[in-house]
Design brief:
The protein has 1068 residues and is α+β, with helices and mostly antiparallel strands. Helix content is 46%, strand content 15%. The protein has an eleven-stranded mixed beta sheet, sandwiched between helices. Strands 3-2-5-6 form a four-stranded antiparallel beta sheet. A three-stranded mixed beta sheet has the order 18-20-19. Helix 9 runs parallel beside helix 19 and helix 28 (975-993) runs antiparallel to helix 29 (1000-1010). It is elongated, with a radius of gyration of 37 Å. The relative contact order is 0.11.
Amino acid sequence: MPLSDVADPAGKELIGSFGRHPRIAKGPLMYPDFADPRSAVLLSPFIKYQTRGELLSGATTGMAGGRERSSRLPRPWSVYRANTFELSNEMIGLALAGNSQDPDEPVVEFSVACTELVTPALDRKPNCFVAVSCTTPPQAFWTKHAQTEVIEGTSNPIFLSSIAFFQDSNINQQTQLKLAVYDVKDRSQGTMYMLGSALFPVKELLLDKDHRLQLELRSAENERVGNITVAAWQMEEKRDQRMSVAPLPDTINGRTVLPVDESLTESMGVRIKYASLCKDTLLRSVFGGTMSRMYRFPTTDGNHLRVLEQMAESVLSLNIPRQYVKLLLEEDAARVCELEELGELSPCWENLRRQIVSQYQSIILAYQETLSDLNDYRGPSFKASNLKAERKLEFMPTNLHIQRMRVQDELGFDHTYDVITFGAPAAHCQGFKNSGLRKLVHKFEEAKKHIYEEECSALSSSQSIVYVPEDIVQAKEIIGHINTLKAQVSYYTERLSRAAKDRSASGLEWTLESLTDKTRQLVMVCDRKLLASAIQALDTARPEYIASKASPSADSEHVVLRNDQDTLLAKWSGRNSRSSLHADWHEEEWEKVWLNVEKSLECIIQRVDKLLQKERRPVSDSADSTQTDLQGGASKKGNRKPRAFWINPGIIPEEPSSPSSSPPSTPSSSSLPALSSACPPSPEHETYGSPCSEEAYPGEWSEALYPLLTTLTECVAMMSDKAKKSMVFLLMQDNAPTIDMHLSLQYRRDVVFCQTLTALICGFIIKLRNCLRDDGFLRQLYTIGLLAQFESLLSTYGEELAMLEDMSIGVMDLRNVTFKVTQATSSSAPDMLPIITGNRNGFNVRIPLPGTMFDALPREIQNGMLLRVQPVHFNVGINEQQTLAEKFGDTSLQENINLESLSRLNSYYEQFKEVLPEDCLPRSRSQTCLPELLRFLGQNVHARKNKNVDILWQAAEICRRLNGVRFTSCKSAKDRTAMSVTLEQCLILQHEHGMAPQVFTQALDCMRSIGTREGVIQKNLSGLLPVRDFRLDPSLLYSLPLLALSPNLLVVWIFLSVAYFLAKLRCS
């Protein structure tokens, strides 16, 4: 019979302190006989029964020593005696309805223990576990509900995992429970048989005075094979908690309070309310498919910890890639439009543009197909490991889940620990033959550097335009600034026009101040030498320029078009005086363009000042004073040397620019606007001087400002378009030699970054929700940003080395991500999902919160402050491939990644110390302070020690102590991730909550065998039985060289291997 539910989800070898999947040793501390009073103090909820006889009979007598020890210990918080009256049906129904204050509180929870188990083979003790099934009439079949961990080598096992029924279990008083005890013969092969079973109704357990049942186990032949004791963790403390919660007022400070989110309310000094993954308004819109497991672990002081382990998947696994790919599609389509808008180019440049556009169109087609596939996808909201290389789903993270451990101590306070687990972000679909992103980025930068050096050497002796790499970065920044500032200038121009129409003096002043600031910022961006040279280069690529240089009059001057390595460089040679004159003219003409914007802005400022002055003066003096001001203003403008130019498309200017100011044959002269040397005519010239102007009419301000605002808008549009086109042309020249490599690298980087970004957003949401009432964390969040610590368990050997390169780049790219918290328009799930905006230069994620949650945020976050992210990444390979890498390979990549992250982590802590107090950080029972932890981490990072897992543990503890978000990854987020997460949980229970060290190994085995991580493997096997991966034992790999020496041994080895795999497949 296959072992369907006890298979080890983390059955691989983890070298070092991770160890092999533990086999529980026998002994009185681990599997006590209840005749030993020492053991009962350490384990299980049956603390008041000291002997095996008392456990079976429920008698009150027992060993005196055991009774004295039990009486001195504090009474466990969950063990109570029932009231003397019997529970009525209504009371039982209320108990089974659950706790509205805590949705994750189980309605029924009990622990089990077996005694005197008998096996057919008397020479061995059973390795047993208990499977629990239930049925509720009129249902006629049994449904598997839960099971305990496997305890080996004892006839009297006490199980640490408890059986819990939650609110969604839909049980009632008539529900029948079946407890089946199985004996696992061979855990590695998964063979087992049922020893016996027992039945009881839920009502019987609840009506019992002590909420304890002692049942006989009967085999299939109706023979007694042992006893099983069921002890319920009573619901009496739930009733006490309900009574202790004071009713909330309907209004606070005259404001109606609606019960939108009960998880925000706090009990009266009992505990801070807990955000449920299943019921919380925000979290249930993001996470789903929650699995839960309950445990009861003893502590060193004789009490018990109630541990709720949960795991959920996220709808963001699909939602974020859809948004992200759509943004990439829009960005690349805009890039193609920018290239098309360059205008007419000479044939050689036109061919180059066509080639680049063709490359972009191929990428756009790939993004369109991906977006269509994502929109058509109707599967689960997570990507299984066998779909890692699926082209349609390559932007989705693999096995993205949230792993949560909720610990409730003796005083009833909750402590929540969350870890985001997902497969290492990597471009599996594109393969790893050419290494990962880290090396590819280095190769790309080297290729660009080589091309730049060749261009410099080839053009060093001629008049030419050569751009350094810094110019390329600056050009991208200029395009981004122009797009942003142009939109802002347009927005404030519209606001100013609206304020003038409404005759709002305060609105006019405030909007003019903002418009002035944004316009001058735009002028500063455009007033750069790089723009003048880029405009000059674009003009040289025009057909009319080429034609003018090819004319007979230019006999001593010609254009050289270099077409080496798929690139073109326009340059001119000949008389230096003519070239210098041409360049000077370009700079002069470009200066006129952005000066137009400044002068137009000055006209608006002067006109607004006069309107406001007229508004503030008495009505009796308005006509005379206004006429005087107009005359004085006109005389001052006539005496000013810098003259304001303005665009008037409908009127031919009276004073056109002199022909001598520009070369007659320049191609750009036709594109310059008509310029006039005075402020444009305004209705004020007629209105203010008339006798009837003392009474202002409604449209006076709007009519006075409309022509000036139109002029400013057209000047800004002309300047922005000309500057943007020149920068696009510059980038086209830069991308041309390596466009194929650039787009291929960019696509791979997009895939990796999307997977990493999705995990980050999940972590940000869960952290923000948990710490919504933590003022220290919120202050830290908007002051120095969120610490995101990524832990990976990838080896530096084979394909995983390339995966590690991909992941390291993806994590570092998160520095370009910012978050902004907004108020959700409604509490429906679609309106609570995050929204991504931006482009590859920087993405912003808007997190909508319900109104009650948003009101709890500090004013800085409510006002839209951008919240930064500080990512760090630590990797330690722990599998058998890492052993090969450390002996025969190279681990320098892992060392470099850890050193870089250590530096960033130290920098983050230094920023924290400079601006924030220590009380912003969470409390810890650890005696080691943060500086000491950082020092220990630095020592381990610099030490060349194989599989130094201390790096992971110390980095994780530092992250928790600094209010950070934890992420754990391996290749598929299954085996190694499960072992790391469960080990971390047990270490937290021992160090922070005082779990008894004697049960550490058993607790670890319990979480690994039946914990929520088992669900990941089950889902990855498409609902099949959660068996261990069919992989070669690592010891077999080490013997391959020896087998190769002997053909006979090799044949035997192959035959045995085939038989091994067939046996595995048969068990599955």
